[in-house]
Amino acid sequence: MAAKKAKAKGFARIARGAGIAVGGVVGAAGALNAIRVASEKFAVDRVRRADDPFADEHFGELKADRDYTVVATDGVPIYVEEVGSPDASLVIVFAHGYTLNMGSFHFQRQALRKLRSPSVRMVFYDQRSHGKSGRSRADDCTIDQLGRDLREIIRTAAGDRPVILIGHSMGGMTVMGLADIEGELFGDQVLGVALLSTSAGNVVSTLRAGRMPKSLVERALPLLAKGAQAAPKALESARGGVSNAMWLLIRRFSFGSAGAPASLADYVDRMIAATPVDVVADFYRTLAGHDKVAALPALRNCEVLVMCGDEDRITPMEHSELLARELPEAELFVVPGAGHMAMMEKHELVDLRLQAFIHRAYKRSRPQAKKRA
């Protein structure tokens, strides 16, 4: 009996010891997490205290002259806004990137509306499942379908008027998707194409070999994509707990090494946060398998500008260099000190280059443009 009591006391001591150990581990983990949260908040606050040239910029609040919906070939409603006269000589269509919306062209919308020769009508739209556009089935979140969406936008917004296409990141891939399915448009109705911070393929492999952490590319992104499909609500609710960490990651990987002012990082963060996690997952597969090198020859029939920041960590310089090799008559312009969001962080330089490109494309194809007008 005494032996049993002693044994019981021994188990009790072990249990108390284990409880203390577990409690210690949990407490230590909690303390480390608190330190992490505090350090992330400190880092964000330090950026917010710095001078901000965009503090008074009304991101996401620019007014449109017209807005409407275009129904895609599979029935998804695509939200469209226009700026400029319906009678303008040239229609410029902007296709935005992955997890963003039409607001990513904020500065171009302000600068290019001042063009007078040629007069322009700018057409902005939210890609399917992004911004104000309708939700797509996961199986239709492909570059080919984005290309078909762009074709419907051109049909509705431009009719037979001459068009210039400007695509950023996934938006540039969208243009390549259109070239793959309807290459005859290029050099005929499409007078010029500007490909900003984009790729013709091999995106994930380049990220793996480039400046993004190997663990993030090889393990975290695929796992997040699978998790978003399996349990989107759980991942969505978890976003709030890592908001400062996400903000710092976005600022680091979307912009150049100098970093973006707080208000600019805030705006990009808001656009990304507004994209549901399962939409992020839906498009990840098509981006991982994207390969449109074979579609590029169609672009040789029109004016082409390839532009990329020299500090782009998402679609590094080699992607733009490949595009330039495949399109030997294209202009390759490298934006110094810029990351993936070059058209926002170095907008004045990008806007000037786009203006020169638009004039060049219109002048080169002026006989066709006059015939269509």
List keywords for this structure.
alpha/beta, 2 domains, single chain, globular, Rossmann fold, 8-stranded mixed beta sheet, 373 residues
Q: What does this protein structure show overall?
A:
GO terms for molecular function: catalytic activity. The chain is of the alpha/beta class and 373 residues long. It folds into 2 domains: 1-49; 66-204 and 285-372, Alpha/Beta hydrolase fold, catalytic domain (Rossmann fold). It has helices at 2-49, 106-111, 143-158, 170-181, 203-209, 214-230, 232-238, 243-254, 262-273, 277-288, 317-326, 342-345, 347-364, 366-372, and strands at residues 66-71, 77-83, 90-95, 120-125, 163-168, 190-196, 303-309, 331-335. Strands 1-2-4-3-5-6-7-8 form an 8-stranded mixed β-sheet, with helices on both faces. Helix 8 (243-254) packs across helix 9. Residues 20-37 and 214-218 have low confidence and may be disordered.
Task: Tell me briefly what this model is.
The chain is of the alpha/beta class and 373 residues long. The protein folds into 2 domains: 1-49; 66-204 and 285-372, Rossmann fold. It has 14 helices and 8 strands.
Distance between the termini: 105 Å
Low-confidence blocks of residues: 20-37, 214-218
Can you tell me the number of structural domains? Answer: 2
Q: Report the sheet-strand fraction.
A: 5-15%
Major sheet: arrangement of strands: 1-2-4-3-5-6-7-8
Shape: globular
CATH topology label of the largest domain: Rossmann fold
Mean pLDDT over the residues: 84
Text of the CATH class of the largest domain? Alpha Beta
| Content-based structural category | alpha/beta
Rg computed from alpha carbons, rounded to a whole number of angstroms = 25 Å
Would you count the extended β strands for me?
8
Please, what is the CATH homologous superfamily of the largest domain?
Alpha/Beta hydrolase fold, catalytic domain
Helix-strand topology string: HEEEHEHEHEHHHHHHEHEHHH
Percentage of residues in helical conformation: 40-55%
CATH architecture of the largest domain: 3-Layer(aba) Sandwich
Q: How many helices?
A: 14
The largest sheet is:
8 strands, mixed
